[in-house]
Design a protein that fits this description.
The chain has one helix and twelve strands. It is mainly β. It is globular and about 50 Å long. It has one domain: Ribonuclease Inhibitor (Leucine-rich repeat, LRR (right-handed beta-alpha superhelix)). This is Leucine-rich repeat family protein.
């Protein structure tokens, strides 16, 4: 199994903790654990999966905060953290991952925080109900397909150039 590159255990009834042994699967490119009854924190051992491109752990009963090591997954293209049970803050390094084109985080309590000022060029950017505050930086409008910032504490004006964008839902 050490050459395994794809693992999806999505939409089952798995319970218990995320096994630290998954970190030994260093060739994984995709790890999908969404839709289970997993508890506990995300193990630090997952940091060993250096070339991970797709990580989804939505709809579980995890606890703790979003791990800092996710910001070191430089090959990551898709990150989905909906209703995980995890709490913020979301490590700012995640927003700086250059290959990350699909970032979806929702229903995550935690301290208030603002989007980074550095450009966020994504195809999909969903940051729903995660305690975002302040204004929406101009760079947030560089999203190609979907921009969802609902149920936050954002203020300010909607820039006029957003009308020129062709978002799809």
């Amino acid at each position: 199994m050490k050459n395994l590159s794809f693992m999806s255990l999505e939409s089952n009834q798995f319970s218990g903790v995320v096994p630290p042994e998954l970190g030994k699967l260093v060739n994984l490119k995709t790890l999908i654990l969404s839709g289970n009854k997993l508890v506990g924190t995300l193990p630090e051992a997952l940091a060993q999966i250096k070339d991970l491109k797709d990580f989804r752990v939505s709809d579980n009963n995890l606890n703790g905060t979003v791990p800092e090591f996710m910001g070191n997954w430089t090959q990551l293209q898709n990150l989905e953290l909906y209703a995980t049970g995890l709490q913020g803050p979301i490590p700012l390094a995640i927003f700086q991952l250059e290959k990350l084109s699909d970032l979806r985080i929702a229903d995550m309590p935690g301290p208030e925080f603002q989007l980074p000022k550095k450009p966020i060029e994504r195809k999909y950017l969903v940051l729903r109900n995660i305690n975002l505050t302040g204004t929406i930086p101009e760079n947030a409008w560089k999203v190609e397909k979907t921009l969802d910032l609902t149920f936050n504490k954002l203020v300010g004006e909607i820039p006029p150039n957003t009308i020129q964008r062709q978002f799809t839902f």
